């Protein structure tokens, strides 16, 4: 079943000098896939993510999520669609610091006025999945970066979104916390069958994906599949990045 369909998408940023950020992008994500998007700085990854997350619209072409075209929706309908069908995880967590972990996680359900009993049950299940049950009553400023990102992931999946979008989720974390966060995302993908799209510069984070799509100068450049061995896949990603361009500095010391 196709969850995301991107068809002939072009994006031009108008301005004194117009920038063609995406050119004729076609790709699909099937249910249960974990897809990474990689490419050099300025290649169009964020632009593509903004089209899929419905934050910005393509200049031409079509984006369909779960068969629906978000760009044909009215403003209120689109806000609901985003809240119920999409989950977002950002580099800087986007949590509310003065609320507790539990309050942050149930926020999308609170906005939807879901019954308290239902919220409590979903909260318990989701926190257990991410191993953060012990910290539910702590405030965000009292927890670590890795715990913050797992809280943000819990908030993103508590609505059971059809598509979970992650933008550099390990960008603010050290290597141990990155590993825990990527293992959490991979477990959600494998055990719950949640469909994921991840934009990252980090080859280690990308090695948890099943498939990686490389973008270069706004065009799809290549695609690789993981197979059984994450270590081999990690090496393949490094080779692709050095071929297509990307951040391969300081990689020699990374252990997979
Ligand atoms: N709001 C904007 N207005 C004008 N040009 C933009 C805008 N956003 C991005 N661009 C341009 O579009 C191109 C693609 O940018 P984009 O941010 O999508 O790349 P990226 O691959 O996400 O880069 P990075 O890895 O550095 O985040 C770049 O040439 C960029 O300068």
TrEMBL record:
Highest taxon, organism lineage: Bacteria
InterPro entries: AAA+_ATPase, ABC_transporter-like_ATP-bd, MacB-like_ATP-bd, P-loop_NTPase
Keywords: ATP-binding, Nucleotide-binding, Transport
Residues in ABC transporter domain copies: 4-242
Any one GO molecular-function label of the UniProt entry: ATP binding
Family: Belongs to the ABC transporter superfamily.
PANTHER family linked to this entry: ALPHA-D-RIBOSE 1-METHYLPHOSPHONATE 5-TRIPHOSPHATE SYNTHASE SUBUNIT PHNL, LIPOPROTEIN-RELEASING SYSTEM ATP-BINDING PROTEIN LOLD
Protein's recorded name: ABC transporter ATP-binding protein
Gene source species: Paenibacillus alba
Lineage: Bacteria, Bacillati, Bacillota, Bacilli, Bacillales
């Amino acid at each position: 079943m196709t969850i995301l369909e991107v068809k002939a998408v072009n994006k031009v940023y108008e301005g004194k000098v117009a920038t063609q950020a995406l050119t004729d992008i076609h790709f699909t994500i099937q249910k249960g896939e974990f897809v990474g998007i990689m490419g050099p700085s300025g290649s169009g990854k964020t632009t593509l993510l903004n089209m899929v997350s419905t934050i910005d619209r393509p200049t031409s072409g079509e984006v369909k999520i779960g068969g629906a075209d978000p760009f044909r929706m009215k403003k209120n309908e689109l806000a609901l669609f985003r809240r119920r069908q999409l989950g977002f995880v950002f580099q800087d967590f986007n949590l509310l610091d003065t609320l507790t972990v539990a309050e942050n996680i149930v926020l999308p359900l609170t906005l939807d006025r879901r019954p308290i009993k239902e919220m409590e049950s979903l909260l318990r299940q989701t926190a257990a999945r991410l191993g953060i049950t012990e910290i539910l009553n702590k405030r965000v400023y009292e927890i670590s970066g890795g715990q913050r990102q797992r809280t943000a992931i819990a908030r993103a999946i508590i609505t059971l979104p059809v598509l979970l979008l992650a933008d550099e989720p390990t960008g603010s974390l050290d290597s141990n916390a990155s590993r825990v966060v990527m293992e959490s995302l991979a477990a959600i993908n494998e055990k719950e069958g949640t469909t994921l799209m991840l934009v990252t510069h980090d080859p280690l984070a990308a090695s948890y994906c099943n498939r990686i799509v490389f973008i270069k100068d706004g065009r799809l450049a290549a695609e690789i599949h993981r197979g059984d061995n994450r270590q081999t896949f990690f090496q393949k990603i490094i080779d692709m990045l050095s071929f297509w361009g990307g951040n391969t500095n300081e990689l020699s010391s990374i252990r997979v």
